[in-house]
Amino acid sequence: MSPAPRLRAATLGDGPVLLDWRNDPLTRAASLDPRPIGRGAHLSWFAAALADPARQILIAELAGDPAGMVRFDLEKARGGPCTVWVSIMLAPRARGFGHGGPILAAAMPACRFRGKPLRARIRRGNAASLSLFRAAGFEAGPDDGTDILTLTKEPTMTETSKYDAIIDEIEAVRSRNNKNWMDILRLAFRHSPQDAAAILREIYKEDKAISDLAAKLTE
User: Fold this and answer.
1) Per-residue confidence (pLDDT) for residue 163, from 0 to 100
2) Which UniProt keywords apply (predicted)?
3) What is the SS3 string spanning 7-67?
């Protein structure tokens, strides 16, 4: 029986280890992009990924040693529901012992993007990953005949609520309305840049006053 994994958030110190895992020949063969990755490019990407609020990277440890990584990428669809893309990678030495299922099962409840569909892109020939995700409740969508299959796990009623749906809808509306405000701003500067700048200075001044008052609440 596979031991229960312990999850933790990834840190910058995990970058070199994850690069070694990613450039392992078997990992590359199963990857959507099988090309090897250079150290500099990987570490730059990894630092940005850790700082990205739309990404979550978890490290799974077994007996205190890193054995796998699960990544969640939030994709915000304009005017529609959000999607969370899931990917998993095992340490080469951890393959073949049945660790993938427990690691994925432990990671999904730890995903901070709750109540949204989970999706995974997997190569058609990657039987191990397809079996892993199907066992976790993911289902394949329509087969378009390409080499990449998309599997989806819809949120259960315990993972979502009417509040999540309303908040997602508000988020989508605010996104559209922000563009409307930017269009007004462009129009104002196009036709009367000096007057527009004066109004913007007043807005900035009042916003700063609000920020200063809000800062007092945290003192």
Assistant:
1) 61
2) Acyltransferase, Transferase
3) EEECCHHHHHHHHHHHCCHHHHHHCCCCCCCCHHHHHHHHHHHHHCCCEEEEEEEECCEEE
Q: How many domains does the chain have?
A: 2
Strand ranges inside the chain, DSSP E: 6-9, 55-62, 65-75, 83-90, 118-123, 139-140, 148-153
Domain termination residue (choose one: 153, 177, 195):
153
Q: Indicate the residue type of 101.
A: G
Token pair for 46? 């990894």
pLDDT tens for each residue of 46-56:
999 999 999 99
Task: Please compute, for residue 166, the number of CA atoms within 13 A of its CA located in the half-sphere on the CB side.
Answer: 3
Rounded to whole angstroms, the maximal C-alpha distance in the chain is 72
